[in-house]
């Protein structure tokens, strides 16, 4: 390790990468590479879709969060060369060399090989995906005249969500509430249809029964149709085919949103390090990559044993791991003992439409409008940097968090 200014390269600027960079600022020559110019607080992407929050609240630019002690490079990492200690970034002529590497590139949508899914389904992981879905909803509403018979309106305004994990239920309740509001404003007849297709037996399988009951009640209240033990088998531009008990049914649909799974980033697929069967990087309890003392991996791409199992693949875990990685990078530089840590659940909060949420805190679950307020408060505290938290907290408190209706395209305020 060079005595002066070790080169610390952090790849990926999500929960794992950004929070590591924030804590390592000044520890050496720190560089963050990300394919986006902003962080994304994913738990509130649903509220961005509904207009309850704005992009600057949940997707602040790295430059606003990180001081001059961290160099930020925007570009997609094409290759990590572990033998030469350097990383190639697309559209960046020189490879970037490092002494210490932190890999936090996260996951990508897993379409599980379903025909048409990659081509026609909308993923839901980025600001651009939420914009695309919202525009698709407005366009579908704009095509429906008020005098269209209810059954035609219903099929023209059918939206399908693939997957009934937390993401699927949060998204479907939000979509249903937004559409219902638009129906009233536009005086449409009948009602919209929101389908959730889940191949497993139950909704939100990773959650406890108490919170699941609240979620199930909210789905009913938002009139979301849930089909369990049912698979999506084909998607086209305007249809979705599902299979239940060996019987296939095709629905007309204005959009299919895919929340059905995550797989590791292709950058990690190409990395020659020890991995699990699912392709996750095996890390030591210190979060160092096995057999690579100067490389750390965390978040959705790393398999870390000493954590509550339900934390796997969550922002909560990546956020907590970032603290440990930062401490251990400093220890490595100083020649000190590296640490390990056990990670626990920090509580769960699920958005359920535009007026309700469910929160699990201290072993107790509660739902309704109060839980929605609690969720906003909880998430304000988890946003990066004090400065950003204060700005966002003030904005939510003084300007409110009312959803932005799906107005006709010509009179949209800002879409
Ligand atoms: C819609 C949604 C809602 C969620 N809600 C919750 C929740 O309520 N609670 C919870 O705990 N977890 C939630 N999660 C999961 C959580 O977002 C992830 O577990 C967490 O983001 C993982 O952190 P990470 O740092 O591993 O990856 P990410 O946060 O995904 O960060 C990866 C970063 O790497 C960048 N990147 C990717 N590929 C490249 C490349 N080739 N070159 C350069 N940069 C690259 C990405 O742009 C991103 O900045 C949600 C996820 C989604 C999609």
What's this model, at a glance?
The protein is α/β, with parallel strands linked by helices and 415 residues long. The chain has helices at 15-24, 45-50, 55-58, 62-65, 117-120, 127-142, 150-156, 166-186, 209-221, 266-269, 315-334, 369-382, 386-399, and strands at 7-11, 29-34, 70-74, 77-81, 86-89, 96-97, 100-103, 107-109, 122-123, 158-162, 193-197, 224-227, 230-235, 239-244, 247-252, 255-258, 262-264, 281-282, 288-289, 292-297, 302-303, 348-352, 356-361, 364-368.
Provide a descriptive summary of the structure in words.
The chain has 415 residues and is α/β, with parallel strands linked by helices. The protein contains 13 helices and 24 strands. It has two domains: 7-35 and 75-109 and 263-346, FAD/NAD(P)-binding domain (3-Layer(bba) Sandwich), CATH 3.50.50; 117-260 and 349-411, FAD/NAD(P)-binding domain (3-Layer(bba) Sandwich), CATH 3.50.50.100. Strand 10 (158-162), helix 8 and strand 11 (193-197) form a beta-alpha-beta unit. The strands form seven sheets. Strands 3-2-1-7-20-19 form a six-stranded mixed β-sheet, with helices on one face. It has a five-stranded parallel β-sheet with strand order 9-16-10-11-12. Strands 4-5-6 form a three-stranded antiparallel β-sheet, with no helix packed on it. Helix 1 (15-24) packs parallel to helix 11 and helix 12 packs antiparallel against helix 13 (386-399). The protein is globular. Helix content is 33%, strand content 25%. Bound molecules: flavin-adenine dinucleotide (FAD). Residues 11-17, 33-36, 42-43, 45, 76-77, 104-106, 124-125, 167, 265, 267, 299-300, 313-316, 318 line the site of flavin-adenine dinucleotide (FAD).
């Amino acid at each position: 390790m060079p005595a002066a200014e070790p080169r610390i390269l952090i790849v990926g600027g999500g929960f794992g990468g950004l929070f590591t960079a924030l804590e390592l600022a000044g520890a050496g020559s720190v560089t963050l590479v990300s394919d986006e110019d902003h962080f994304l607080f994913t738990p509130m992407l649903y509220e961005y879709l509904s207009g309850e929050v704005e992009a600057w609240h949940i997707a602040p630019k790295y430059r606003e969060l990180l001081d001059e002690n961290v160099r930020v490079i925007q570009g997609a990492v094409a290759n990590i060369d572990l033998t030469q200690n350097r990383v190639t970034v697309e559209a960046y002529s020189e490879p970037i060399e490092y002494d210490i590497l932190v890999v936090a590139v996260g996951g990508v949508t897993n379409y599980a090989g379903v025909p048409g899914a990659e081509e026609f389904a909308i993923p839901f992981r980025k600001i651009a995906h939420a914009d695309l879905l919202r525009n698709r909803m407005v366009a579908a509403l704009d095509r429906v005249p008020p005098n269209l018979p209810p059954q035609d309106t219903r099929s023209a305004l059918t939206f399908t969500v693939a997957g009934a994990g937390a993401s699927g239920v949060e998204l479907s309740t939000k979509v249903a509430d937004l559409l219902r509001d638009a129906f009233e404003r536009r005086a449409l007849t009948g009602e919209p249809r929101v389908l959730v297709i889940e191949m497993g037996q139950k909704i939100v399988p990773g959650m406890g029964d108490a919170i699941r009951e609240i979620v199930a009640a909210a789905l009913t209240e938002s009139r979301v149709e849930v089909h369990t033990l049912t698979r999506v088998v084909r998607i086209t531009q305007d249809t979705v085919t599902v299979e239940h008990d060996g019987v296939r049914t095709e629905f007309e649909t204005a959009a299919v949103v895919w929340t059905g799974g995550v797989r590791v980033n292709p950058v990690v697929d190409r990395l020659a390090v020890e991995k699990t069967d699912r392709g996750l990087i095996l890390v030591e309890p210190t979060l160092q990559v096995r057999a690579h003392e100067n490389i750390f991996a965390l978040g959705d791409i790393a398999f870390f044993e000493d954590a509550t199992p339900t934390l796997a693949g969550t922002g909560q875990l990546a956020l907590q791991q970032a603290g440990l990685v930062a401490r251990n990078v400093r220890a490595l530089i100083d020649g000190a003992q590296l640490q390990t840590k056990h990670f626990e659940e920090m509580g769960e909060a699920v958005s359920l439409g535009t007026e309700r949420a469910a929160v699990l805190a201290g072993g107790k679950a509660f739902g309704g409008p109060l839980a929605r307020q609690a969720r906003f408060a909880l998430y304000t505290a988890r946003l990066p940097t004090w400065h950003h938290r204060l700005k966002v907290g003030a904005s939510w408190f003084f300007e409110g968090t009312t959803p932005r209706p799906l107005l006709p395209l010509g009179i949209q305020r800002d879409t």
